[in-house]
Amino acid sequence: MKILILAYYNPWISGGGHRPICLCEEDIARGDEVVFLFESDAEIDQMKKFSLFNSHRLRLLRREKESGKLIAMNQQAEIFETEDDILEKWRPDYIKSHNPVQSFLGILKKAKDKGIFHIYDQMDFWDGFPVQPWGKDVEKEYISMADQCITISEWLAQKNRDITDKEFKVIPNAIKNAFADKLFMSYEEVQERSKRKKKQIIYSGAIWPEWFEMEIIEYLVEKFPEYEFLMLGPYLSCKDEDDGRNNVEIIRNLEHNFNIKFLGQVPHEELVSYLRQANLAIVPFVINEVTKACSPLKCFEYLGAFLPVISTNLPEIKNYPMIEFASSKAEFANKVEKMIEHKITENEYKMMCNFTEENTWKARSQEINKIIIDKNLARR
Predict the structure, then answer these.
(1) CATH number, domain at 265?
(2) Are residues 335 and 366 in the same domain?
(3) CA R_g for the chain
(4) What are the residues whose beta carbons fall under 8 Å from the beta carbon of 316, sequence distance 6 or more?
């Protein structure tokens, strides 16, 4: 099939592990052809580092926000000069949109007039973001024009019932099959890891004010000088979403402690070695509408590395194995102290194996593909 993907950022933003590229990789692996159309120029200089950039099945285009001009980002995309070239000459079998980008409303309306199937993939609670460079109050139009809507969490699906009668199929985030294969450890290796005297606690992902509860980290670092804290992920907002809040001073103050390291943004594939070396993983999120709505990618990867997890009370991960929840920084610390010494049982190991096998991007992509096929058959 031919798929037109619409997103605000380039596929490999923030290291290359986000939902749009994870699903896109599965589309291409299945033999589909993809046009990936995005708007922001953030981190576009990093794209050539990724092997898929040169795939003959992937055409990358950036649409300039002001002029609407299409810019070919790889050689394969040079056949397109206008949006009409995509819709009429190439003619996608369906469109998959990930962000409610205002400037893409025109191409979506044209596609609807041509009867091209459109699936809207709601990746976040966009109204909760302090800065929305893709456009405000646009999502309702995306939902209205979509032939099928999917979302990442039950919380968001429930929230959507307040604004639309359209059904949202819940398809959470997942883990890449190849990434899980690299993370895999035998039960004996997991047991051996737990015997190390120097314990390491890991966090991977964005360290942004609207998501991250810095007070918990400050408390843990002070309370447990014997543990090493490794923080992987950007702590400066992307230029498109910068709301003026600055984490740098907080990070600098924390780095005065000898037992914490902030490594900044790390390419997704490089996370493997860090996760395999850790003893415990954390999700110290603020509890608000943005985080209640989320499906934390990191949890799939933590569990894929057979790590016990301590998290604040995020509804979407309540039934995941080997996750302990805390409602305060003191409770968080108590759970850390308890679980960092926990010896994973053989039964717990099997539960994490099963969870990882059932929650891959390949499985998610197959689920979406089935929706497309079933809906298109029903329209005939």
Answers:
(1) 3.40.50.2000
(2) no
(3) 21
(4) 152, 153, 154, 155, 172, 292, 293, 294, 295, 296
Is-above-0.90 flag for pTM? yes
Q: What is the dihedral of CA 301, 303, 307, 311, to 10 degrees?
A: 90
HEC letters along 64-102: CCCCCCEEECCHHHHHCCCHHHHHHHHCCCEEEECCCCH
Q: 151 with 204, same domain? A: no
| Domain count of the fold of the chain | 2
- Secondary structure (H, E, C), 6-62: ECCCCCCHHHCCCHHHHHHHHHHHCCCEEEEEECCCCCHHHHHHCHHHHCCCEEEEE
List pLDDT tens digits, range 64-99.
988 999 999 999 999 999 999 999 999 999 999 999
How many degrees, rounded to 5, is the angle at CA 335 between CA 331 and CA 341?
155
Residue whose entry in the numeric block shows the structure tokens 């007039």: 113
Q: Domain containing 374: what range?
A: 2-174+360-379
Mean pLDDT value of segment 18-23: 97
Tokens 């790889």 sit on residue: 74
Distance from C-alpha of 236 to C-alpha of 245, rounded to nearest angstrom: 9
pLDDT in tens, 315-347: 999 999 999 999 999 999 999 999 999 999 999
Tabulate helix, strand, coil % of the chain (nearest 5): 45, 20, 40
The pLDDT tens digits of the residues spanning 284-302 come to 999 999 999 999 999 999 9
